[in-house]
């Protein structure tokens, strides 16, 4: 289990307790079985395949039908959110004295819903790890595994050269081992690390490390055929998937509560209805009781004052870069202007961050950011504020002065934005700020599920200059000693490839070196000092504009009970709640 900075976690736990309780339960009654949970929202998952899923909605959906060796328990506090517990593993793994070898023993009664049903075995987890490195849609979190598991980087590099067909990928996976991963027998998996990593179990608790049945070798990862043929080991199974329209989950008939120490199965069905782009309409449906949970739409800012005090409304503490402004440093547009650090620094000065916070409900529930690591995460340093402006409202004169120093004028930036939630307002606010500094923008409305795959995470589109700036969000995959889940995926330039979350292809050898030193530091204290240095170095080069760290207002219908919020997904855990009759 990873080591944590105790005072930091204690402080965050106190904040969470102040923001809202952990659950809502039925008075005088226990869990009730039955009914259909109705979830409504806007966009589809980025990827349905757990090997490449990297959005909170996909993570929360995956909780219902995928299984991992270890996972995170249900619970609202940040301290709970970072506690790793067994899932398919019968217990936490045995760790060798040198901290490099992890031996997992699997439960024998976790079953795939195949015909006939069969047990989930160690080879399924080995296959799941291999699929992360596929050349068609490699995992956005691939660096977690290439940096920790012996031989994974070599496997990844070799896999990228293979045919991008299902048959070609299956042949490679079946003939090539990851040196540090071995299915010893059906119930024993051994993983060898390159060096001790105190956060390794956190990495293995992510959805990326889900088991993958042999049937998945027939499909291109996350391709249309895959999406129609998912196989479940969790309490629910996907019975209907219409891209961008509807997802239906029903009981997995071979799942047993005795085989799952974390999840439950109180509701009969979960219906996700997509295509509703108005957060106000979603909120109205929740309050009217015609829907139960929002899929991806936020509580409208205008509704927050009247909802305060409502037992179905809570605000939970966050530690996020959400949103932030990413620069496409590869873009050929404007004579490669965004490769110039002074241009990026100029834009850092001009953005009115307080206005962004106001879009999400004001500075009382959103923290204006000036660094690459948010408060509540290791490496945060309140002294690193190189582009701070009074009240976070921006400084047009400093922007103009830096652009003049750079010898750059008449910039016109391609700016795709998501059409759901508050994203249009954020884009319009930033575009207005840039206009004050003489920078024009071409706003490109984009479906939520296309925003990353067709723009920010597409190597080809990035290099072609299909986008110059974009406003993604980032939620760390775990909390406390979690810089690997913030700094590595966003700023480590050594693993930039298709699907990368280092959106602008930032690659600074000094930052890369600091990352390596911090990840292999012998203790949390030394690591924290190195992460602080990393934060300062990143901001000096200005590959992003940090904007806000959002707390999370969330609402559910009056019939939802045992609504346990999970910080990792910023949603309620579907496998824990039940419905009032």
UniProtKB/TrEMBL annotation:
SUPFAM superfamilies: Periplasmic binding protein-like II. The keyword Repressor does not apply. It holds the Pfam family SBP_bac_5. InterPro entries: Peptide/Ni-bd, SBP_5, SBP_5_dom. Residues 1-18 form the signal peptide. Keywords: Signal. GO terms for molecular function: peptide transmembrane transporter activity. GO terms for biological process: peptide transport. One of its GO terms (cellular component) is periplasmic space. This is ABC transporter substrate-binding protein. The lineage of its organism: Bacteria, Bacillati, Actinomycetota, Actinomycetes, Streptosporangiales.
